[in-house]
Specification:
- InterPro entries: Arrestin-like_C, Arrestin-like_N, Arrestin_C-like, Arrestin_domain-protein, Ig_E-set.
- Belongs to the arrestin family.
- It holds the Pfam family Arrestin_N.
- Keywords: Sensory transduction.
- This is Arrestin C-terminal-like domain-containing protein.
- The protein is mainly beta and 355 residues long.
- It folds into two domains: 6-144 and 324-354, Immunoglobulin-like; 147-303, Immunoglobulin-like.
- The protein is built from no helices and 21 strands.
- The protein has strands spanning 6-12, 24-25, 30-39, 44-46, 48-60, 66-80, 86-88, 91-100, 109-110, 114-125, 133-141, 157-165, 178-186, 190-191, 196-206, 211-227, 232-249, 254-262, 278-289, 294-303, 351-354.
- The strands form five sheets. Strands 2, 5, 6, 9, 10 and 11 form a six-stranded mixed β-sheet that branches.
- Strand 19 and strand 20 (294-303) form a beta hairpin.
- The chain is elongated, with a radius of gyration of 27 Å.
Length: 355
C-alpha cells in the first residue's frame, strides 16, 4: 500500500517457498517477517501503526446463515502515542515480528460456501483520514498427517445394509417387492493420495427386478455449520471424485464384487478435528442401481498425507508425530538452514516485535 508520501509493506523472512506470493507454513512453525514503513522526502504525521496476525474459518451459504470460527487473532501496536499524533522523518522504518502457529489449526482451503484463511495485516492511523489504511499479506497453512501415528487407521471396516422394497415410492410393481442386502468391507480405514481403496462387497438381490449396475465411488464432502439463535443448521456439498462400475446382479441371485477406486493425487486430506464451521471428509459409496432406484451404502474413510507402512517398518518411528515433512528444510534469509523443532508438543502464542 502506498500514498503520496509513504508506503506500507509486509515481508516474510523465511518459509518453505520464499518466492511464492502466499508463503507456506505448517502448524507449529514460526511465521516471521517485518513491516516496512517508507516515508519519502517529507515528514509523516500518524497516530499509530498496528499489526494483526489472524486465522479463521468462515461459511456463508445464504444471506441469513453465516458463521466464523477464530483460531487466533493477535494484535500488537508497532507505534503508539498518548499525544494527538507523532511525526516521523523521511526514511525507512522496519518492525520485525514472529509468531509461533498453534498446532491445533486446520489447513488453508477454499470451499463452495466457506474457507479457512490466514493473514498478517498492518494498519496505519493517519490524522484527518476517515479510515485506517491497511495492507494484508495472506499466508498458507498446510497440515502434514502421517497415518502411521494415528489410531484406528489400520482397522478393517465392515458395514451391512438391508433394504426392503415394499413401497410404491420405489416405482416397483408388486411382483418386484423383496429384500436387497449389501455387505461391504475395507481392509483399512486410512488412505493417502495416490492409493487405491479396495472394496470387497456381497450383494444379495431377493427382488424380482435386476440390479443393472453396481457403482463403487469415492466422494469428497464439505460440511458447513452455522449456529443461529434458534438452531444449529448444517449444509453439505458432496462431489464424486473417483468411480468404478461393476456388472449388476440378476433378480434372486447373490454376487460378490471386488473392485477399487483411486484416491486422486491432488486430494485434500481429511479435516474434521480443528474446525466446527467448515470440515472436509470422505466416504466410499457402493450403490446398487435398479432401473429407477438407487440403493447406496456409505463407508467413511480417512485421507492423510502419508500412507500406512507395514507394521514392522513402524518400529523405529519417532515417538511424537512430525508436524511437517522430515525432509523439509526451512531456509533463513542468510541462506542457512533454520533449526526448528519438528515435533513440538506445545505451542507458543507470543508475538515478538522489535524495531
Amino acid at each position: 500500500m502506498s500514498s503520496s508520501n509513504y508506503s506500507l509493506e509486509i515481508f516474510y523472512d523465511d518459509n518453505c517457498d520464499s518466492t511464492a506470493s502466499q508463503p507456506i507454513f505448517y502448524p507449529g512453525q514460526t511465521v516471521k517477517g517485518h513491516v516496512q514503513l517508507s516515508i519519502s522526502s517529507t515528514t509523516l504525521k500518524l497516530r499509530g501503526l498496528s499489526l494483526l496476525i489472524k486465522g479463521s474459518a468462515s461459511c456463508n451459504y445464504s444471506k441469513d446463515l453465516q458463521a466464523e470460527q477464530e483460531f487466533f487473532a493477535v494484535e500488537r501496536k508497532l507505534i503508539e502515542t498518548k499525544l494527538d499524533s507523532i511525526e516521523l522523518a523521511a526514511g525507512s522504518y522496519n518492525y520485525d515480528f514472529e509468531y509461533r502457529l498453534p498446532r491445533n489449526i486446520p489447513y488453508s482451503v477454499d470451499g463452495q460456501y466457506g474457507n479457512v484463511k490466514y493473514f498478517v495485516q498492518a494498519s496505519i492511523d493517519i490524522p484527518w483520514d476517515l479510515y485506517d489504511k491497511k495492507v494484508v499479506k495472506p499466508f498458507i497453512v498446510v497440515r502434514y498427517e502421517d497415518l502411521n501415528y494415528m489410531s484406528g487407521m489400520r482397522e478393517p471396516c465392515e458395514l451391512l445394509l438391508q433394504k426392503q422394497i415394499d413401497s410404491s415410492a420405489w416405482f416397483f410393481s408388486r411382483s418386484s417387492l423383496g429384500l436387497v442386502t449389501i455387505k461391504a468391507n475395507l481392509l483399512k480405514c486410512g488412505f493417502a493420495p495416490g492409493e487405491k481403496v479396495i472394496v470387497d462387497a456381497s450383494i444379495d438381490n431377493q427382488t424380482s427386478a435386476d440390479i443393472e449396475t453396481v457403482s463403487i465411488a469415492l466422494y469428497y464432502n464439505e460440511n458447513y455449520t452455522a449456529q443461529t439463535p434458534w438452531a444449529k443448521l448444517e449444509e453439505k456439498v458432496s462431489n464424486k471424485i473417483s468411480e468404478t462400475i461393476a456388472d449388476g446382479v440378476k433378480a434372486g441371485f447373490t454376487k460378490k464384487i471386488k473392485e477399487s477406486v483411486l484416491v486422486p493425487e491432488n486430494s485434500k486430506i481429511t479435516s474434521v478435528m480443528y474446525s466446527t464451521v467448515f470440515q472436509i471428509n470422505y466416504h466410499v459409496q457402493i450403490t446398487a442401481k435398479f432401473r429407477r432406484v438407487n440403493i447406496p451404502l456409505l463407508i467413511p474413510i480417512y485421507i492423510g498425507s502419508v500412507a500406512l507402512r507395514k507394521e514392522e517398518e513402524c518400529e523405529n518411528l519417532a515417538r511424537v508425530p512430525p508436524l511437517w515433512p522430515p525432509s523439509l528444510n526451512i531456509i533463513e534469509k542468510n541462506g542457512t538452514v533454520k533449526s526448528e523443532i519438528n515435533n513440538e508438543t506445545t505451542s507458543s502464542e507470543n508475538v515478538v516485535i522489535s524495531e
